[in-house]
Write a structure and sequence with these properties.
about 15% strand; elongated; five-stranded antiparallel beta sheet
Length: about 190
């Protein structure tokens, strides 16, 4: 149980320390999620619960990595209405858009808005509300996409589920060991 909570806290803290880069907390988070699954496997002596732990691991990982930048944008971010004036992916087969934006004052913003995907990508001429960090530490995001409370909810929900899984694994593993029944995988280890 402690390892699950410590893993969530470590990834969240790492995301706070590296606000512009998501790669480092994601790599550390994936490693900690795999380690948690292995600990459940050893504790529970069955594969199904370790595999099932991947679902809350996604909530923990996504919540921990996205909470810090979105909380920073909510606390100190500047909300601004902008118009898209250019798209670097326009006319290409790329789904990696980098939008050039013009503010309400008529000046182009230095920072570009990134958007991955084509299904609901905004088009040149569309008006958007964005939140940008005046310090420039956190990338700009669409205002509708900033939801720190939702990310925190996912992080807490995933961590609570991990905790319940650890209790279940410990109890079931204890009962199986007491009865002298081990899984085939544990016997191979």
């Amino acid at each position: 149980m402690a390892f699950g909570g410590a893993s969530a806290a470590a990834v969240t803290g790492l995301a706070y320390l590296t606000p512009g880069s998501e790669a480092v907390p994601i790599m550390v988070g994936v490693a900690l999620c795999i380690a948690f699954a292995l600990l459940l496997l050893l504790l529970h002596r069955a594969v199904w619960l370790a595999v099932l732990s991947a679902v809350p691991a996604l909530f923990v990982l996504f919540g921990a990595v996205r909470y810090a930048p979105e909380a920073a944008l909510e606390q100190r971010g500047v909300r601004e209405s902008v118009v898209i004036v250019a798209d670097t992916a326009a006319g290409t087969s790329s789904s990696n858009h980098r939008f050039t934006l013009r503010g309400a004052d008529g000046k182009e913003l230095e920072e570009k808005l990134g958007f991955d995907g084509d299904a609901w990508a905004p088009k040149v001429g569309d008006r958007l509300d964005v939140v940008r960090d005046p310090e420039g530490a956190v990338p700009m995001e669409q205002a509708d996409d900033v939801d720190a409370a939702g990310r925190l909810g996912g992080l807490v929900g995933g961590t609570v589920t991990w905790t319940l899984m650890a209790v279940l694994a410990g109890r079931r593993g204890h009962v199986r060991r007491r009865r002298g029944r081990d899984s085939l995988l544990y016997q191979l280890l």
